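S.,

As promised, the pyridoxal-5'-phosphate run. Input:
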Amino acid sequence: MKVRLSKPSFAGREKLLAEFGEMLNDGYLVSGRRVREFEDLAAGYLGTPNAAAVSSGTAALHLALLALDIGPGDEVIVPAYTFPATANAVELTGARPVFADIDSKTFTIDPSRARMAVTGRTRAIMPVHLFGVPAPMDALMQLAHERSLAVIEDAAGALGSEILGRKCGTIGEAGCFSFHPRKVATTAEGGMVVARDQALAERVRMLRSHGMSFKDGVPNLILPGFNYRMNEMEAALGLEQVGRIEPLIQERRKLHERYRKLLEKVPGLAFQQTSQQCRCAWQSLVVRFDTIDSWTIIEHLRQRDIEATIGTYAVPLLGYYRDKYNFGPADFPKAAEIYEHAVALPFYNGLTEDEADYVAAVVRDLVESRHPGQGKR
Ligand SMILES: Cc1ncc(COP(=O)(O)O)c(C=O)c1O
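Predicted complex:
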């Protein structure tokens, strides 16, 4: 049996193909009604009035930072275990990403480390709701309030995750989503910025489209901007995906529960933890192995036709940041540990129970062969 790591699922194919057909006929490929409808749909789902669709999650982070006027001389606190885009977006504004280590149970930023990282130059905290697990927003919002910092949530993989009923991405000044194919809802490439404040959303809209604004139809160039727009084809996919986001999330939660039942007693294997107060819209299933390194597991799975990969990256330990700031694993021991021991297992809408059972059996056999006699049921 061959099992893929991830695969987007589209329902209502006829409707989607008809929409694409209509788009070819009407010829509106950019800046049309579909992008606006997609923004309205996502905003309605998230319960926020201000949503701007953009070309990727990376563009969303970059624009949120720039719209908050963050740049040279500023510092932004980011977790040490995340996708490189989180830190890169900060670096590309000219500000400095200041890395804070994570909690090794939730894989999200440790608020006490974030607190220690604050200096007189800190302008913002950028927590990541990693793989759909909410970051500890209570403690971070408190810190932000005390030190007058902005909070930009990297909710790239957390559309639909909640803390005490509040949607991730809507708690700080701005929230950034990705619609890459490994996310719960995809537009192929695509992203979104949601902003608490309408003026901030307007700045994002202006910067995503060359820095131009139109007042009563009269164009003006406010600031040099980008072309970070989402196109109509992407928005058509997004309308289908976000249109059934809750069933997509429920299916993932069921699949996550199945994996948990199959693997929770395996010795030396731990699931990413979350609190009772949270609802996770699981983007990925990432598990930590205490004594086996991730590449040994990944290679073993690949030999059995199962695609797997590492969870994500200890970004300050990757070439550019490591060399620029002279970082070593001792600076971020938890991120370093999880980077070496966490594996993303096959997880997507449409993965069958048989496939999950096969993956779990292969993982169990591997661990059992390393720890004979333990964990038998
Ligand atoms: C935590 C995080 N932030 C940002 C991004 C960037 O999103 P995109 O690939 O849409 O640019 C990703 C992508 O996987 C991510 O996982």
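The chain has a mean pLDDT of 96. The longest helix spans residues 245-263.

- D.
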